[in-house]
Amino acid sequence: MVTTRELRSRSDDEPITMLTAYDAPTAEVVDEAGIDVILVGDSMGNAVLGHDSTLPVTLEEVHSRTAAVARATDDALVVADMPFLSFGVDEADSVENAGRMLKEADADAVKLESGPHTVELTRRLTELGIPVMAHLGLTPQHVNELGGYQRQGTDPDAAERLLALAREHEEAGAFSLVLEHVPANLAAQVTAALDVPTIGIGAGPDTDGQVLVITDVLGLDEWSPPFSKQYADLRGAMAEAVTAYKEEVEGGEFPAEEHSHVERDVDDVY
Ligand SMILES: Nc1nc(=O)c2c([nH]1)NC[C@@H]1CN(c3ccc(C(=O)N[C@@H](CCC(=O)O)C(=O)O)cc3)CN21
Ligand SMILES: CC(C)C(=O)C(=O)O
Ligand SMILES: [Mg+2]
């Protein structure tokens, strides 16, 4: 079993592996492959729910997908990604919403897209026993404020602000930190400055771990971000299977004898 305690102390030569999953069969495959952390990402908005951003994703959607993933996972740490406006507005609501992920959906931890407004919340949740993974750099819930999904931390002021926020979240108790779409040399410095592990996406090779969105890895979507890598063409495999089924039904080949059964007792009901 992967624990937040074990991840915190993971030595430098054993990179942390993390992937998203949004359903039980996918979580089973990811867990059985020995991936350390499964993130039930709000990227489900784009990846599986048909939205064009993460903003419409609801607490109930992440809650139900987290429960499905947790039921299928034996070893990996399951992290629920808190959706847009489910945290950071009101402290009591934030605690209740994050708490439901642990109490009801069986997550091991939550992730919050972080900023100056999440330092005290990270402290509070950690104090209450809800482990927090922080997330800095490109925070997609800010897409409207940022005006797109551009690289972050690219000038000295922004880079210094990011490093300071990373330190503040570590001090507040975050057990790890996702760094998204930031320069590799900045991610390396943040990684060196922190004791807790950094997990990069589009942040170069020098973080303590890597994370990608599972549908990008599997090639399920036509589009994927510039920093991701496609390790399979499941979209192609799915299209082939669906087309083969259609052709067999239209050609009268499916169902065959082995897919049917006949009961002589019901021969004469018409
Ligand atoms: N399937 C999937 N994979 C992801 O990695 C992902 C999601 N969905 N949804 C939430 C966010 C959005 N992400 C994105 C989306 C677009 C770019 C991108 O195209 N960036 C370009 C141009 C950005 C612009 O100018 O708007 C770049 O060159 O940085 C990067 C990350 C990463 N996250
Ligand atoms: C890409 C990761 C870090 C994420 O936040 C998500 O999948 O929602
Ligand atoms: Mg997310």
From TrEMBL:
Q: Which reaction does it catalyse?
A: (6R)-5,10-methylene-5,6,7,8-tetrahydrofolate + 3-methyl-2-oxobutanoate + H2O = 2-dehydropantoate + (6S)-5,6,7,8-tetrahydrofolate
Superkingdom of source = Archaea
Q: What is its main location?
A: cytoplasm
Gene Ontology CC: one annotated term: cytoplasm
Residues bound to 3-methyl-2-oxobutanoate = 42-43, 81, 111
Q: Which cofactor does it need?
A: Mg(2+)
Any Pfam family from its record, for instance, is Pantoate_transf
Q: Which residues form the active site?
A: 180 (proton acceptor)
Q: Where in the cell is it found?
A: Cytoplasm
Protein function: Catalyzes the reversible reaction in which hydroxymethyl group from 5,10-methylenetetrahydrofolate is transferred onto alpha-ketoisovalerate to form ketopantoate.
PANTHER family on file: 3-METHYL-2-OXOBUTANOATE HYDROXYMETHYLTRANSFERASE
Family designation: Belongs to the PanB family.
Q: What is this protein called?
A: 3-methyl-2-oxobutanoate hydroxymethyltransferase
Q: Which organism is it from?
A: Halobaculum lipolyticum
